[in-house]
Amino acid sequence: MKKKYLALFIAATLMFSSVSVFGETSSATANDTSSVTEQDQSLWNESLWNEYTDYITVDKDSSLATLTLEDATKKAINNSSSIKNTSASIDLTDTTLESSYNSAMAGDDDGGFSSLISFINSKTSYENSITNLDAEKASLKHSVKSSYISLIETQRDIELLKMNLKIEDNNLTIAKAKYNLGKLSKSDLETEEKTYNDDKTTLVNKQDALEKDYKALNILIGASIDTRYNFVLDPVYKPFEISMPVDSYINGKVALSNSVAQAKKTYESKKQTSSLSSISNSEIGGYQSAQNSLNSAKMSYDDKKDDVYQSLLSKYNDCMENEKSYKSNVEQLRLLKNTLERTQANYQNGKATELDLLKAKYNVAKLENTMVSEIYSHMLLVEELADTNLM
Question: With CB atoms 3.0 to 4.6 Å apart as the test, which of 42, 241, 297, 351 could cross-link to 270 if both were Cys?
């Protein structure tokens, strides 16, 4: 905000202090509180991640370039027509603000009230446009990260499905042999065939989903639809911890959230313009109209605070459930790995089949894949709980 605009605005608020009191003061400490601990106190570490990649690996294609999340985000912001339009709107609103300022300084027939009201409205619009730009960039960055993660997860799902299909192919071969020996009924054989065919269909559908995910990302970053990449994004798991009661944390974030801040600015602007209108307009209809507009702004402000609060509370609960599930799965993973070790020993001693070994590996890989997805989801949830531009 230019200094001369700010000076006029301060003068206006002092002139009409009885009607331009800035009500609720947000908690300044909410943004100062780190929502995520700096030290990794989780069960996650690099060695564990290396174990997670034992059985599900997405091979890098040497013919493809690696698209980092940072590069994808930059491309998406540069490609966004919405961000370009908001930037243009800021320039236009700045021009309008200049005109409103000049009119307010010059005064008019009603003592300058109309020009001052116009200036206050223009100032609110200008500030909201700047806030919108920051929020749009944050939202787009988050969307790119979500899409990027979705692609990685889909690639991993495909590798897991291929492993499962290999198991089902073995099961079907065994079922056919038993059927030919008269040791399996036709209905049981048909069940095995259906399971195998259903799994093939699931794999094809997942591969189709991967292509759709690629196209969605390419549209987002302005690349050719058919472009393919290698991806790299290590899962980073840190428990979400706050140094205050949950309710206090959420209320602090609500007060600082982008959407609530805009609703508050609109409400404060309406309080100022309503009082100025009351002074400059003696007609009952004009006064009532100003009061209706003020009441509507107050309701919108209150509703927005409640909406953001409920949304953050829901995300917090999801985050806690995610952490609970992850910790439980870590323990389950250790049991499955112990089972795998015993199966490997039995296989080497001729007491277990290759299919037994493959199934044991699959069970480990399946849970590992679930846990990697949990970590990615946790990363996104933590961002949504910490970044006020996403609220």
Answer: 297
